[in-house]
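[STRUCTURE TOKENS]
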Amino acid sequence: MSVTPWLADRSMDMDSARTLVAVIEDDPGIRELVTDLLQREGFEVHAFADAGSFFRSASTERIDCLILDVMLPGEDGLSICRTLRAARPRLPILMVSARGDDVDRIIGLEVGADDYLAKPFNARELLARVRAALRRMRADSGAAEGEHRGAFRFIGWTLSAANRSLTAPSGDIVSLTGGEFDLLLALVSHPQRVVTRDQLLDWTRGRAATPFDRAVDVQLSRLRRKIGDDPREPALIRTVRGDGYMFAVPVVRC
């Protein structure tokens, strides 16, 4: 298994400067290729062969993004993802695997990965997805958030774009992954109107999206569960067959 080669752009951008990316990959060839690729782009990279060495590392708490292989010796990538998602809900996690069918992608996204890439992958695509994940994570402090600063209120819930948090009517904070937050923000920003799946992909994943990207579908399912929206008869996020989705209740922007 190998990364598809390409001539990398050696210029360092602001996204890569001082950004720490961890790579957990047991194949030494792929681990070295990914490490070299990211380092050429200006990222700081810490690479590990298994879960044990990763969790023993002093850098675990300060990583900005994780590239995680699914099939690992000992604790597998799905288990690592669950552990990290509970501890760091906003950490961007990109899972990679030689098993690229829809079932495996959905399982990876269900346990909390923000993205899923099948091997062998193109290096340009890997970089695009890493950068897109980092931009989403930093949206709360960057100018890219722009018009979405502030808060959105709907039937007792409050979604704060300023600190990227969701507060339930009970006052409890509901934990969302970065992808789930961006999806809910896109929906509440366009309330009571139909938005297509392609629009949601573009707004939440940008150039990193692919025509068959299932992340939106999985994250919508997770969102419905977290906000108590019955998936059999959803009242908040409705599916409009053949057209897309609609956030069906009024939203007040604060």
